[in-house]
Amino acid sequence: MAVFYTLLVLFLAVFVAGFILLVMGAINFDFSNSEIPPGVNQPVKLRIVHIILISTAVVGKILENIGICSQVSFVRYMQSRKTLGLDPKLFIKDLWFAKVPVRIYQPKVPSASQRRGVMFFHGGGWVFGSLETHEKLCRSIARESESVVVSVGYRLAPEHKYPAAYEDCLNATIHFMKNVEHYGVDPARIIICGDSAGGNLAAAVSQTLASRSDLPRLRAQILIYPGLQALDFNLPSYQQNQGVPLLFRECAAFYVLQYLNGDASNMQEVLEGSHIPLDITLNYRKWVSPDNIPDKFKVRGYKPHVLLDCTTEVYEKVKRICEPNLCPLLAEDAIVQQLPESFILTCEYDVLRDDGLLYKKRLEDNGVRVTWYHLEDGFHGVINSFNSDWLSFSSGKRGLDNIV
Q1: Which DSSP helix (H) or strand (E) runs through 233?
Q2: Is 380 an annotated catalytic residue?
Q3: What is the pLDDT of residue 23?
Q4: What are the residue boundaries of the Alpha/beta hydrolase fold-3 domain, all occurrences included (predicted)?
Q5: What is the tens place of the pLDDT at every residue in 54-64?
């Protein structure tokens, strides 16, 4: 107990010191790089959330520099420290599906028929996020839709590189699909859902399962501001929202590289588009291009980007970026045509907005029914902030209501 209190005091002291140093400018973080546009929902709250997140990262860096723990470990710890306890409306249990940790949420109210089953993959750039960070969201989905929700605690980067997260999500889903009778779930009503990086994983798993005749066909996929490609970080939404919290353009590229191979040394090439040979880039322009984005999304300060070629050395390090299991927007039409009915949520002030718009077009072009909901005042991460105590956002609640 004495050790616990010593660590607690040390943490509080370092956190306060880090916050003071950040505010005083003694630690180099330029808030001028961030921008909260006038149209964002509840901008003051967003700025407060952003400052809290940056302060946490600063404290993590201090702790890393003095040899206590890594910055990534500290941020993960801070994200997962809350426990919610019992829920009067849900049975909640931690299990293992195919050696993957999962948390299952089952409504207590009796059901006259088999329920929907929702496989949920959390966001966090493949580096952060956990069963705990999305606990409130999963509880809400289970309660409000009266569905059985399975949240998947997949392995994180950079310790576990691509395709570890994808494989965990796929294997956990297959296990669930083969054992749905144990959870009172209708095999014809299984849905895959995820936010941000989890949306990427949901799209990739959906594509893999689309041609599996030995498993039930997925009823739907729900993609919440998903990241679906890493070829073009100069699409209109990347240019317009590059400094809008909670996901900066540079961070999006950094997270992809952490997931890909744990090496961010080629981040500048990725940002400028010189990480993929020109002939390959041009081949994918039919799917990944500003030309496929409706004009109304280009009026807010978009400038066409000049295509660049790349060196063989750079491409050899990042060439797996072109694999559909990492970038689902690059899947062939024959796969896309088999996908289930889809729900895509996008936010206006989100660098990943255009990934969702491009995938929407691909699905519709291939005859897949799409329900699209766009939060005009939304920002990246807003859904998971819908009920975060006093820092909740009304647009997040609207988005969740539409998902349910």
Answers
A1: none
A2: yes
A3: 46
A4: 118-265, 313-383
A5: 999 999 999 99
Helical pair 164-178 and 197-209, crossing angle rounded to 10 deg: 60
Please tell me which residue in 196, 274, 342, 385 is annotated as part of the active site.
Answer: 196
- Do the beta carbons of residue 237 and residue 225 sit within 8 Å? no
d(CA 146, CA 158): 36
| Torsion sign across C-alpha atoms 20, 26, 31, 32 | positive
The pLDDT tens digits of the residues spanning 165-221 come to: 999 999 999 999 999 999 999 999 999 999 999 999 999 999 999 999 999 999 999
Helix (H) or strand (E) holding 187: strand 185-195
Helix (H) or strand (E) holding 105: strand 100-107
Q: Which two three-digit tokens encode residue 374?
A: 């766009």
- Joined together, the tokens standing for residue 66 give 């003095």
For residue 163, say if its preceding peptide bond is cis, omega within 30 degrees of 0: yes
Q: Which one is catalytic: 34, 168, 380, 395?
A: 380
Ranges of H-type helices in 154-284: 164-178, 197-209, 236-240, 249-260, 267-272, 278-284
Structural tokens at position 152: 């998947």
Which residues partner with 349 through β-bridges?
Answer: 379
Q: Is 196 a catalytic residue?
A: yes
DSSP class of 344: E
Q: Are strands 370-379 and 341-349 parallel, antiparallel or unpaired?
A: parallel
DSSP bridge pairs for 190: 117
Q: Residue 245, exposed/middle/buried by CB under 10 A (0-12, 13-18, 19+)?
A: buried
43, 47, 52, 55 alpha-carbon torsion, rounded to 10°: 170
Task: Name the CATH superfamily for 85-229+323-402.
Answer: Alpha/Beta hydrolase fold, catalytic domain (3.40.50.1820)
Q: Which is the catalytic residue, given 232, 350, 354, 355?
A: 350
| pTM for the structure as a whole | 0.93
Q: What stretch(es) of the chain map to CATH 3.40.50.1820?
A: 85-229+323-402
- Token reading at 268: 């500048």
